[in-house]
Fold this protein.
Amino acid sequence: MLNKLKILKEIKKHKAKKIFLQIPEGLKTKALDLVGFLEKNGLTVYLSAETCYGACDLRNREAEVLGCDLILHLGHSDMGIKTNIPVVYYEVRINYNPVPVLKKYTDLLKPYEKISLLTTVQFLSALEKAKEFLEKQGKTILMKKPNKAKYPGQVLGCDYSAAVEKADCFLFIGSGEFHPLGLAERTEKPVFFLDVEKGVIKRMENRLYRIKFAGIEKCKEMKRFGILVSVKPGQFNPNLAERIKKALESKGKRAWVLVFDEITPEKIMGLGLECLVNCACPRITEDVGLFKKPVLGPEDVKKL
Amino acid sequence: MLNKLKILKEIKKHKAKKIFLQIPEGLKTKALDLVGFLEKNGLTVYLSAETCYGACDLRNREAEVLGCDLILHLGHSDMGIKTNIPVVYYEVRINYNPVPVLKKYTDLLKPYEKISLLTTVQFLSALEKAKEFLEKQGKTILMKKPNKAKYPGQVLGCDYSAAVEKADCFLFIGSGEFHPLGLAERTEKPVFFLDVEKGVIKRMENRLYRIKFAGIEKCKEMKRFGILVSVKPGQFNPNLAERIKKALESKGKRAWVLVFDEITPEKIMGLGLECLVNCACPRITEDVGLFKKPVLGPEDVKKL
């Protein structure tokens, strides 16, 4: 999955000597082996032990403090974060053929003519195969270049703009419910999830819509709002937080701006907040149960 | 406990407008009230939601990124960390009279003539009262200025140099076992803990010595070492980590430098490490059970 020689070649292009390595959870078992290989080739490597959820989760400030001259960021694609130190985004691709599963579920997709195909960076080749197969079946396949993500059809936790609105349905190919759920929250149209691990296609429900709506209703009564800000470079938006604070105060609420590295519920226990507004990773808003209090998105504040 | 007017005056001295506020767990209930007060006085305040264990745990880089012009760090004393943004350390003092408890435990301290008194910054006034009382009882009270901490008799999690070696015993006055335990690990002499919350004095045992010794024995056989580095300004020591890595490799071990913000066990699960060497907060070494594998201090590596 990791082409170590190719990685080394990329590093050498930058003439880097001291590397800061970031690796997402799913690739951690390969991490120490890669570090050993790079060290044998004369490099110094610091391995970030922090979680790495996406390209937004770039630890460039830590790399700077450590005097590194390159960040090697595995498994995610460049989303255009500006840094003082160069970053090599090494995308990890998984070869997967979705055709057998698509054949099995031909009936499920029968009612839909125009299909918008979506995936994450590691399954982009599966998207190509699916496109070819479905077009042969007479479908019109819609794919577009997203706003923040890099490739046509690619989604990020904060970017579902690759979903083509005029499609009759959406088909996400990948692993884990995080992305197809995120998509289902953002559309009224059917969202199908081809689960590469289980080899099935299922339709996703928009489970959160009603919970979220109820959350907004509850917050109308509430007075003490916490505004969540993350210092992670790709999630950092203090100006939005300031605007939300003013908007809340104009509605007679009290609001405090809270700054996090990683956003977890226990960090705000004991502050006596009633409700949260999330100005960091948009997906935190969906971790409804976790915080045991309503978590609104910035766009919800005008509904209060 | 918090003199808000005094805090405001300190801030005004620095002509600061945008404040980054750090507050330890025990003061969190007072946090939002203080923020509200400062905002009413025309200041913008960002409240750090991250844990704040000591002055070492300074989030100056986050404050910089947010464009703040002052860090207000509550509850800890200055330990001399250099920063680009000024830091106001507002020490919180608790008025506590230890004499009634000392009277109750006169017999316990009877065998000891020279007593070294110790505490944390918030109970410094209790130290004065204890000194006066014990001297009247004929004891010789020893106190000295520590290396990193600011006041005679004051301890930090990483600095027990205020403990005067030639004493017959040590008496720590404060709250929680963290510090008296830390002291007990570092001396063969009796350590007494006057627990201000429970109103009792108990003798601390050095529980970790044997566990730690056994850990070193186990690590002799082990091959795969993780070296823990923290980016927290007061715990940051990558050069030590590099030296430890070389020392381990010269003993035929493999070693990887792991970089953390907050050091927690789940972040290194799945890496396949057998043993850890802690080059961050020295007290992590004592959280033996937490990591489910031996955690050595840097000084232990030469014993392998």
Notes: Chain A has a mean pLDDT of 94.
